[in-house]
Amino acid sequence: MSLMQEIGIRARRASRELALLPTEKKNEALSAMASALVDSSHRIETENAKDVASARADDMDAAFIDRLILNKKRIKEMADAILQIVSLPDPVGEIYDETTRPNGLKVAKMRVPIGVLGIIYESRPNVTADAAALCLKSGNAVILRGGSEAFHSNAIIANILSESLAKVFVTPDAVQFVKTPDRSAVMEMLKMNKYIDVIIPRGGYGLIKMVSENSSIPVVKHDAGVCHVYIDEGADAGKAADITINSKVQRPGVCNAAETLLVHSNWLKHLPGLLKTLWQMGVELRGCERTRAVYPAAKPATEDDWYAEYMELILAVKVVDTMDEAVEHIEKYGSHHTEAIVTPSKERGWEFVRKVDSSAVMVNASTRFNDGGQLGLGAEMGISTQKLHCRGPMGLKELTTYKYFVIGSGQVRG
Amino acid sequence: MSLMQEIGIRARRASRELALLPTEKKNEALSAMASALVDSSHRIETENAKDVASARADDMDAAFIDRLILNKKRIKEMADAILQIVSLPDPVGEIYDETTRPNGLKVAKMRVPIGVLGIIYESRPNVTADAAALCLKSGNAVILRGGSEAFHSNAIIANILSESLAKVFVTPDAVQFVKTPDRSAVMEMLKMNKYIDVIIPRGGYGLIKMVSENSSIPVVKHDAGVCHVYIDEGADAGKAADITINSKVQRPGVCNAAETLLVHSNWLKHLPGLLKTLWQMGVELRGCERTRAVYPAAKPATEDDWYAEYMELILAVKVVDTMDEAVEHIEKYGSHHTEAIVTPSKERGWEFVRKVDSSAVMVNASTRFNDGGQLGLGAEMGISTQKLHCRGPMGLKELTTYKYFVIGSGQVRG
């Protein structure tokens, strides 16, 4: 039996224990996890220093190293994020869709954990703690496979979390970390249908693609965000500017930031002012010909720009003659993540909501609101860009499934 | 561009039209589909005769040929099944989970079609009509790929349905049938992430495995049903017999039929009588040692028997000392499809529901009730055995997804 299979068997067994844990016990375990992180700050910092040293030796850039560094403050923030999950309602055990059939059978659904989640990530080490806490609260066992760049940090965090579970008499196998460094472990993980119910990749394009193409286990993708702001005719110039600026500038490196601005041709007179403001805020502008006719300082946009998820202060700008042209553009070039319309018309807002096929459609609000915390789900595992299972933020409820249960008094089928 | 890509592009375009179709228009289209099938009975029978002739030439057995044959009565039944879907509520457009955030944003979900479904099947030709009707009502475009054994029948049915859509001014691309006979078309289909949102395989173990292993598109599996009936201590002998017999005998060739009977050792005195009745009904019995001690006529069960989905009149029988032993057996050998308990105790029934991890758990009712019609969903695409997206019957609602929509008045993130 391979090491990965052993991990799988332990996780499956742990998942059965977790599925039946009362909310209070899960919250006690989460509190223990949070305390253990703070109490073990020194151990974490020591291990983290190894990752930081490797990153420096590999000449990684300053932003990369900054994301990697764990200090007492960041460890406290990780612990606080876990405590926040304590305060969220437990989705497990909810009974809904109750009906009674003509033959007297009582039919209902019960919300239950999915079972075993495999999380493959290449992000900051805090994902280790966040993911473990979300899985525990939703009653799932988790197998974590972090990126090599944060190997020591991820391993020590997972180790501390697992130890802290044992102290409150919850199986430490609820949180397991894959320590084998080679890629073959990931490939094996992606085929462990018997032990893993869902794979969640978190990371860049390459990781998502590798996982989708190789997994025989169902995958929930958290993919690219090529998000659009569409300014409709008649839009208030101030609101349009606020929403565009917030969507692009407030945090350009995240998936719900805007990449392309679409502007109705009847709004053109306001466009130069908006683009100038954006430029003053450090945004590089790449426009279609009609954009450049009113704002020549914009660089010409190429076909590639319409597909781009810049993740930085660059904005593509295109003028359209109708809402349908905007919708067509979004359908062709977008990633079905988040789009916003700025419009004075309720009807036009509604039309946009119906016609745009994205995980979240904003009317007169920033694209940046497509986020678990902002939409009221609490913490999230990411933003799903696929249509199966969950779309948009994946919070605690989205980490569950259901089973039907049927209460009879001896009914049989005729 | 390949033929499959062309089909994909047409389906994607059709899906956008279908997503916005009002319920009345979809119902009009379904009625047109039903009428067209009846009106074209002769054309269908002529094409069906070719499949039946091939099956005879290939020396297929009588049951196989019987499933394949389409006559006026069966065509009428296909049409009636479509008309039943007319009467089901349209899931699309439902607005739910509405909340208002502290910043005044109104957040809600809107139920929307998934988009384009790819259905790969090797079943009776009526699946062509059923699947097309369910997809149309739920606003999805469908790409159908049927088995070669019913190629002519499937092709003519799909063709008639598609023509009938055009007559009521709905895009005929809503229902497309893949006519290329070679397997490479299926392999190409499984990689068309850009055009297909979900793949639904319907068929035997080999098909499901091939699809899961090769698809880079999310799959909803309708897999094996290794279903159990567990007779708890104190169970009423009459109810236990009724439920066991119905679960095994009423229709043994379907996924929600029982394959294994688990019996609490305190119920042993009733077991010989039950097994004798089953035997009289033609059921072959394969028992554990303790079963054979009280009913020596049973053949000895092997390890393989516990895993078997017989699909015929064979029942494996095992004696257990506790409910937990039954639950362990189900976890180890079952397929998470359907299990039933017969018990006089509400508490014990509830415990079984909580501990068993299956798409449906029946208390004092036959396993045969895990069915879209029986559970109140109306028609179904199949019974999902996976945990992502939907579990148990996949009806109209399960053929949809949602999008978030957010109505603001200029809100941005701070």
Helix content of chain A: 40-55%
Question: Any low-confidence stretches of chain A, pLDDT <50, length ≥5?
Answer: none
Write out the strand line-up for the largest beta sheet of chain A, numbering strands in chain order.
10-9-11-8-7-12-13
**What is the β-strand count of chain A?**
16
What is the assigned CATH homologous superfamily of the largest domain in chain A? Aldehyde Dehydrogenase, Chain A, domain 1
- What does the largest sheet of chain A look like? 7 strands, parallel
Number of domains of chain A: 2
Largest inter-chain contact set: A-B, 69 and 69 residues
CATH topology of the largest domain in chain A: Aldehyde Dehydrogenase, Chain A, domain 1
So, CATH architecture of the largest domain in chain A? 3-Layer(aba) Sandwich
Q: What's the pLDDT, averaged over the residues of chain A?
A: 96
Rg of chain A from C-alpha positions? 24 Å
Percent of sequence in beta strands of chain A:
15-25%
Structure class of chain A: alpha/beta
State the shape of chain A: globular
Question: In summary, what is this structure?
Answer:
Two copies of one chain form a homodimer. By secondary structure, chain A is of the alpha/beta class. Chain A has 16 helices and 16 strands.
Q: If you had to describe this structure to a student in words, what would you say it looks like?
A:
- The structure is a homodimer of 414-residue chains.
- With 414 residues, the first copy, chain A, is of the alpha/beta class.
- Chain A has two domains: 3-222 and 390-406, Aldehyde Dehydrogenase, Chain A, domain 1, CATH 3.40.605.10; 227-375, Aldehyde Dehydrogenase, Chain A, domain 2.
- Helices cover 43% and strands 21% of the residues of chain A.
- In chain A, the strands form four sheets. A seven-stranded parallel β-sheet of chain A has the order 10-9-11-8-7-12-13, sandwiched between helices. In chain A, strands 5-4-3-6 form a four-stranded parallel β-sheet, sandwiched between helices. The first copy, chain A, has a three-stranded antiparallel β-sheet with strand order 1-2-16, with no helix packed on it.
- In chain A, helix 2 packs across helix 7 and helix 5 runs parallel beside helix 6 (126-137).
- The longest helix of chain A has 17 residues, at 3-19.
- The two termini of chain A are 47 Å apart.
- The model of chain A has no long low-confidence stretch (mean pLDDT 96).
- The interface between A and B is large, with 69 and 69 residues.
- Strand 16 (400-411) of chain A pairs parallel with strand 13 (360-365) of chain B.
